[in-house]
Amino acid sequence: MSGEQERPALPWRRRAAAAAAAGASRAVLGLLWLLHWLPLGAIDRLGRGIGALLWRFGRARRKVALRNLELCLPERSPAEREAIARAHFGWLGRSFLERGLLWWAPRERLQRLIQVEGDVRLAERSERPVMWLAPHFLALDVAGVGILLNQNRRAGSIYQRQSNPVFDAAMRAGRLRFGNAEIFPRSDSAKPLIRAIKRGDAFFNLPDMDFGAKDAAFVPFFGVPAATLLAPSRMARLLDMVVQPVVAEMLPGGQGWKLRFLDPWPDFPSDDAVADTLRMNRWIESEILRNPSQYLWVHKRFKTRPKGEPSLY
After folding, report:
1. CA dist 109 to 6, 41, 84, 211, Å?
2. Which of 47, 130, 211, 250 could form a disulfide with 123 if both were Cys (CB 3.0 to 4.6 A apart)?
3. Is 5 a member of any domain?
């Protein structure tokens, strides 16, 4: 016998499972494509129905949402927090179905549905590169589309590769279809993104998820220490960027979405990245209090804990 071992073949069951998963993913994408032809009011009703099912059967995510609300809004009664969570799941269901619109609807239809407030063209006029700071409200992808539709400056963003390759390819194609965007996988080096900003691209930055303790500080978020990336402050300082907050909101029924471009922060960044990050979190808190049911409560925002502290979930 040869000392060289043959590489074992992938078991047929695993191949069959992968093929079945890919087929199911294509079926879901096909359904999203069909649904995008419906009026947004119909998509809204279907999405809320899906959200009701998610609330009933998605026990794990329901517990995460309720726990986050308990931590962040302790002054609200349990009944009030549950009402916010139930509404959140309705918006969550709709946000999933809206992917079809954002990925395939004609430019003209999206422009009619996205109501823009504020200075959407700041990046085109600015002599300094612009960072759009966009927290994780459920209409976050609408913010990205609205930016690309309403100004000609190229924009870059970081994205999380999806474990499902079929969905990953569809998401990439949908986000890049207008031709003035570039997306960089979070797992890759930041050097290509920095080069893009230095050559004049704007940056669509999503600053409020828990990516662990690396390059982060435990900064209060509704009074609870939360692992928060210091990158917005550090990158803005390194690249001399203008920071403009952006918030997207889903409107009820078939009214579409509202995209608010707020005034850029005149004194951001400072020389204190932690203080800047605290300021950012406090601004996000104020926006959540304006529209609590549409923030991403199903994300484990407090997953990473300071050393020695027990899990909050």
Report:
1. 56, 14, 30, 35
2. 130
3. no
